[in-house]
Design goal:
- The protein is of the alpha/beta class.
- It contains 10 helices and 7 strands.
- Helix content is 43%, strand content 13%.
- A 5-stranded mixed β-sheet has the order 2-1-3-5-4. The chain has a two-stranded antiparallel ribbon with strand order 6-7.
- A hairpin with a 4-residue loop joins β4 and β5.
- α5 packs antiparallel against α9.
- The longest helix is centred in the last third of the chain and has 24 residues.
Length: 246
Amino acid sequence: MILFVFEGGKAEPLVFDSLAKLYLKDEEVRVVTCEHDLPTLFSRLRKNGYDLFRSLPLKENGIEVPEGARMDTLFSQIFLFFDYDFQNAIGVEKVNEILGEMLEYFDDETENGKLYVNYPMIESLKYTKDLPDADYCNYVVSRKVCTEHKFKGLSETFACASAKQYRFIDLKKTPTEEVKQSWDLLREQNVRKANYICNGKNVIPDKKDVISQDKIFAAQKEKYVEESNNVSILNSFPIFLFEYLR
């Protein structure tokens, strides 16, 4: 059984729905939505001695845990998806400190779990003027725009017609074959961009570890956040798909 942990309860489940139905249909999947950000999860983990069971709203999400059960006896793999949110009021330095520690701890889906990060947030998935978008590797957003809470609206305005409200991956609104094609194209352009961010190469990498989550974060900090107070727009769901199917 695989556990997926999401920051939000609206966009993430919508995005995940078709991904799960198309690519994880042979797996038993459970989903937890936290309704809080990464710093809050970090605080709860530290308070609970890094016990993920005690730090997640499992019962609220309909997951009953047997008395004394361990996470690794219930779930063979654990994946967490959270937003970078470098506009958080605690400050970008503290956000980076927390994310660095979380990526170090959640680095293996078969052990503590594996953390995937959206830059700056889940809405980055639809920030594409076309699909594929030849300019995708160049798209960035400033911390100022995120601090003013404008990125969600900006991404919807910027999105091509098929991407608005995530229609291009919504099986209720789009034919299955078109959704599959959307995921294939999203996977390619986000994986290529991750390689561009990390290694300056806008191509699919030969090895998936060259675009690991910790390397993406390190490159984002060095090349974008610290350099210009921007972040390079990137979504982690297609990267998860690339790594999972590799």
